[in-house]
Amino acid sequence: MSYETLRFTRQEAADHGFLGIITLDRPQVRNAIDAAMVREMHQVLDATNDMTDLRALVLESSSEKAFAAGADISELKNRGVQDALNRINAGLFRRLEEHRLPSVAAVRGYALGGGCELAMCCDLRVAGTGAIFGQPEVGLGILPGAGAIQRLPKLIGLGRAKELILTGRRIDAQEALAIGLVNRVVPDEQVGQAAREMASGIARQGALAVQLSKMALNAAGRSDPSFETVDVLAQAVAFQSEDKVERMTRFLERKAKKKS
Ligand code: COA
């Protein structure tokens, strides 16, 4: 199957089945996540669910500049209440988190907004020394509605999550490691290999035990019945605001001006 926004390949995992490698491939827009990418990710998750010889997934980027720079702002600007309620990105990320296969994010460059949220819904994260993480959504008049509100506090604690989300401050790989946002930091050129080794380390374990452990860990982290409800509703409100339209228009105009 061929895709427009990503690539999917399989790689042997040292005598223990295969790894599925998903490579985000919209380098011209820093892998901004648009509707086509969401659709194709769903297709890949369908396909990988049926591949019984797969043991783990690795998510990476075709470019060293960005893992993903978030949702595509040119689409986001026009999304309204119904789009927020449809959980376009949140639904995909939840699905990846719940996938029967464990996943490892290999982060080089920017992982901002939905890019950081995508990395967080993977089970493990390897970052290159040059990786930059952040949740800049409030600067665009919306909230990080695709999982950061739940997953960031769980990974780094509520106080730190509030700082990153409310100020939009970006952090580098070392800080991300120190606060628990990533599991390992390696030189940028070794990120892909390190993520594959981590995934192969999972592949060597009992496949059913890994799958059940992942399910149990996910359940253990989710005792709150309102999970993802409050932020989806809040995002629906933010999507209707004039402030959001103005801020996203300013971002897009700045980029257009730079080009001309
Ligand atoms: N949505 C749509 N387009 C995006 C994008 C996004 N999230 N992030 C980057 N792009 C586009 C830029 O508009 C630019 O397009 P152009 O070449 O047609 O002008 C191109 O990708 C390259 O981006 P540029 O800003 O020139 O690259 P950079 O290396 O200087 O900076 C970032 C990279 C990621 C720091 C910067 O692009 C950025 O801040 N992006 C937005 C991040 C964000 O707010 N994400 C949250 C969305 S909710």
Describe the structure.
It is a single chain. The protein has helices at 35-50, 73-76, 81-85, 88-98, 114-121, 148-156, 158-167, 173-179, 191-203, 207-220, 229-239, 242-259, and strands at 6-12, 18-24, 54-61, 66-68, 103-107, 110-112, 124-128, 132-134, 171-172, 184-186. It is of the alpha/beta class. The protein has a 6-stranded mixed sheet, sandwiched between helices. Helix 1 links the parallel strand 2 and strand 3. The longest helix is centred in the C-terminal third of the chain and has 18 residues, at 242-259. The site of coenzyme A (COA) has 21 residues, from helix 2, strand 6 and helix 12. Coenzyme A (COA) is lined by residues 29-30, 32, 65-66, 69-74, 76, 110, 112-113, 136-137, 140, 255, 258-259.
The low-pLDDT segments are none
Shape: globular
Report the strand count: 10
Distance separating the two termini = 37 Å
Strand content: 15-25%
The overall average pLDDT, rounded, is 95
Order of secondary-structure elements: EEHEEHHHEEHEEHHEHEHHHH
Radius of gyration: 18 Å
Largest sheet data: 6 strands, mixed
Strand order of the main beta sheet, please?
A: 1-2-3-5-7-10
Question: Strand pairing plus helix content: what structural class?
Answer: alpha/beta
Helix run count:
12
**Cofactors and ligands:** coenzyme A
Helix content percent band: 40-55%
